[in-house]
Amino acid sequence: MRRIDFLKKLSFTALLVAGIRNEVGAESASIVKDSSTSSLDVLPTYSMYDAEEVTSSLIVKIFKTGMDLDFFLAIFATELQSLYPFVENSKVTSYHSLYFASIRCEVVCHLTMMLIRVWQNLCLSYGLEGYDKKELESDSVQIQNGILEFGKKFKVGDIDHFIKDGGDTGEIQSTWTCLVSWFGSQIKESIISYPLILNVTEKWSEVEGSVGTPRYNESFVSEILAFTNKFLFQLDSIKARWHQYAVRFYYLNFAQTKFENQQREFQNSNKMMKTDAVFLNGSLSLESAIRTIKERAFQMQSGVYHDLDRQNQQMVVSTLVQVIEQISSATRGEKDICKRLKLSDHYGGIITVSTAAMATYSLSVLEDALAILQIERKLHFP
Fold first, then answer.
1. Region 175-193: what's the mean pLDDT?
2. 51-103: per-residue pLDDT in tens?
């Protein structure tokens, strides 16, 4: 069977699902952890691949042979919204809701990246018998519009994830600020997102002058591939930012939820002093955050990760160092714990996993930090 005949027998949806199953392994995927419902005595570390596992799990649940792309994306959006409900633009919310908003936006980016790769696969079939410029244009517009509509359902702030016309404003930024509860008070949290412009028809006009020339086919496909490659690079960066938010809110949600539960318990019991309970809350939170950094460092020891992977993981490490400081200040009254644990220094530098050598070195520092926290907990709770 010729390549073009094979592609015509498969829907966009089937190609998308095949790509995701091949990437993750859908049959073994599990739904991402929700720190509000897991045991409050043990906080699982945050995996690098939760968004991929959520995507794969939802596909296993909803995919049926013959589904067209628009219907599949609509059902996927409904399931994702049901799994992680979030009230848009509320002035007062919780870290639990912010975590939900972040993880589902990360999933949106992941699914869109896979769909862009399906689009690129179609470009490689251009010029074969039965697949000409008209068909590629039609398929491109269908995929583009599917992505635009899908992104609209998950915006955080006033602007959609993907827009068709960005005008001449340069980089677009959307900021949403809200109030959240934090250890008996309210503080401000802001989410900044960067919508991406998705309008492939503008690229076609750049090669119209070469219509009828021997190099027209090559130029037409090259423009689409260059456009989609740039979009994939931007999407990877945006996905990393949402992952960074998800990790941050995951840990802050755990600490705040545990604090609220402790407050309710103190109304009915005096078995444990309040300061002891808050100390334990902080100790468990800090230990899990450090274990997550350790897992990322362990992964980054490998030479299989490219520079962008390492940069993205360093962003997460930076976020976790800030989270450790914020939780420590609220639960222990200690603002410089990262310096004491050697996760940061007096010059503003923090522990790094950005190279294989530094990741390897960081592992011993992280082991020492975990040992210090465990010794402190034993002294506090003999």
1. 94
2. 999 999 999 899 888 888 899 999 999 999 999 999 887 899 999 999 999 99
- Give the C-alpha separation, 63 to 222, whole Å: 32
Q: Has residue 323 got a pLDDT over 50?
A: yes
Tokens of 264: 């309710």
Contact 224, 203 (CB under 8 A): yes
**Interval 247-264: pLDDT, tens:** 999 999 999 998 988 888
When pLDDT is averaged across residues 131-159 and rounded to a whole number, the result is 89
Q: 169 is written with which tokens? A: 């404003």
- Quote the tokens at residue 244: 């960074």
Give me the helix-helix angle, 307-331 and 274-300, nearest 10°: 170
Displacement of CA 371 from its chain's centroid (Å): 30
- Whether residue 286 contacts residue 373, with contact meaning beta carbons closer than 8 Å, is answered with yes
Contact 175, 157 (CB under 8 A): yes
Q: Which two tokens stand for residue 69?
A: 């792309």
- CB proximity list for 190: less than 8 A, separation 6 or greater: 175, 176, 177, 178
Outline where the chain has alpha helix (H). 3-9, 12-24, 50-62, 69-83, 95-123, 133-152, 201-204, 216-266, 274-300, 307-331, 337-340, 356-380
Using CA atoms, how far residue 242 sits from 38, 99, 109, 354, in Å, is 22, 10, 9, 19
CA distance 372 to 337: 11
Burial class (CB in 10 A: 0-12, 13-18, 19+), 214: exposed
Rounded Cα distance, 14 and 12, in Å: 6
Mean pLDDT (the chain, rounded): 84
* pTM (predicted TM-score): 0.88
C-alpha span between 105 and 94 (Å, rounded): 17
